[in-house]
Amino acid sequence: MMLKKAIRPISAAVLLAATLAAATAFAAIPENAATVLVPEQTIQLEQKWDKIFPKSDKVDHCKVTFKNRYGFTLAGDLYMPKHLQGKLAAIAVSGPFGAVKEQSSGLYAQTLAERGFVTIAFDPSFTGESSGNPRNTASPDINTEDFSAAVDYLGSLDMVDRNKIGILGICGWGGFALNDAIQDTRVKAVATSTMYNMTRVMANGYEIKMDPQGKYDRTAPQTAETRYQIKEQLNTNRWESSKHDYTTLAPANNLDPQKDITSKTPKFIAEYAQFYRTNRGYHPRSINSNPNGSWTNTMPLSFINMPIMEYAKEMRTPALIVVGEKAHSRYFSEDAYKAIGSKDKELYIVPGANHTDLYDNTQKIPFDIFEQFFKKHLK
After folding, report:
1. How far, in Å, are 185, 343, 376 from residue 314 at the CA level?
2. Nearest to 299 by CA among 287, 283, 285, 312
3. With contact defined as beta carbons under 8 Å apart, do 173 and 108 qualify?
4. Do 367 and 112 meet the contact criterion of CB atoms below 8 Å apart?
5. Quick check: is 133 in a domain?
6. Comparing C-alpha atoms, which of 305, 4, 299 is closest to residue 125?
7. Angle at 15 between CA 61 and CA 250, to 5 degrees
8. CB 284 within 8 A of CB 290
């Protein structure tokens, strides 16, 4: 299939340079001039198929890059139905939090492309193959913007009807997807799968009992005093981290399912390990998969202080919120469903499913429900 001009071939190595156009003129400026050369950043785009799911023969696929309004270059996998005709509806997909596009978001994107949509699964800023320094950090503002940047990119394609673009967020990216739909009126439909509100969980802790048997009774959120103590530690971290350009990572805590899981391990923590740290879902670029992987040791600060979905009641975008019946995270979806103001909204509970079932279990992920929702609202 001939790809239109908006899709540019991507070489194996893409130079993401922050070099200023006038850099050549700086050579003649005295050393004491007030000039700072910002280092270039290079990212490597893997061209071989390295996903956790098989490649479909029903879609075309290519690697692409696009920028967000903060200047970061995001890497994505574009999936297109074979033999497409005319302008199609499109969906941007990302998540889970700490995952990469070669995992769950790619599976969702490829499956929805098989069902007739142009889709893109992308790595968020600072992670995977996308740019941004320091690595392994996150921002409620920038990561919300990443979704809007994906909408920008999809809307630039000749094959896409820019009035028919939706977004889908998985796990922590479910909250960012809803947050983006609140601000970006171009998003015509938003769906979440097994969502988290990352600002809420970092500010309040888990509002459930950490039960090894999976009985997730609700508990009170952590107190303001506990939150203050956390902020004290995070800000203490800054003194040392600032000496290293804020690249210092928190201690690694990705459990090995063969060695670290005990009878006292909360069931959902064990389920995370059984996905990310086994052949089922492992990917070397995923923060959650890497044995030494972790986020920067100051990352939670903005999440604690800047809650997303503050204007959820003002959201008008049709919304589908999907969550597993047995998911520890179910309360995020149920509360988000109550909070959003959309007149056209649906909460779909997947019988018997836990949180990570909706990462990759194609027998439980309700793709028919997602397809029906997007076809109804992107028409």
Report:
1. 11, 10, 22
2. 287
3. no
4. yes
5. yes
6. 299
7. 90
8. yes
Q: What is the DSSP letter of 214?
A: -
Q: Residue 38 has which token pair? A: 């910002």
Residue 189's H or E segment, with its range, is: strand 189-193
Whether 221 and 229 have beta carbons less than 8 Å apart is answered as no
Q: Which domain holds residue 326?
A: 48-197+308-379
What is the identity of the amino acid at 88? L
Residue 319 lies in a domain: yes
3-state class (DSSP) for residue 218:
strand
Can you tell me which residue has the tokens 């320091």?
Answer: 134
Q: What are phi and psi of 74, to 5 degrees?
A: -100, 140
Residue length of the chain: 379
The sign of the dihedral angle between the CA atoms of 213, 219, 221, 224 is: negative
**Domain contains 164:** yes
Q: Is the dihedral of CA 21, 27, 28, 29 positive or negative?
A: positive
Domain total for the chain? 1
pLDDT tens digits, the chain, 379 residues: what are they?
A: 444 434 444 444 443 333 333 333 334 445 665 788 887 899 899 999 999 999 999 999 999 999 999 999 999 999 999 988 899 999 999 999 999 999 999 999 999 999 999 999 999 999 999 999 999 999 999 999 999 999 999 999 999 999 999 999 999 999 999 999 999 999 999 999 999 999 999 999 999 999 999 999 999 999 999 999 999 999 999 999 999 999 999 999 999 999 999 999 999 999 999 999 999 999 999 999 999 999 999 999 999 999 999 999 999 999 999 999 999 999 999 999 999 999 999 999 999 999 999 999 999 999 999 999 999 999 9
* Rg of the chain on CA atoms, in Å: 21
Residues 217, 96: Cα–Cα separation, whole Å: 24
* Domain membership flag for residue 299: no
Task: Let me know: does 18 contact 41? Beta carbons within 8 Å.
Answer: yes
Using DSSP's 3-state secondary structure scheme, residue 35 falls into: coil
The model carries a pTM of 0.91
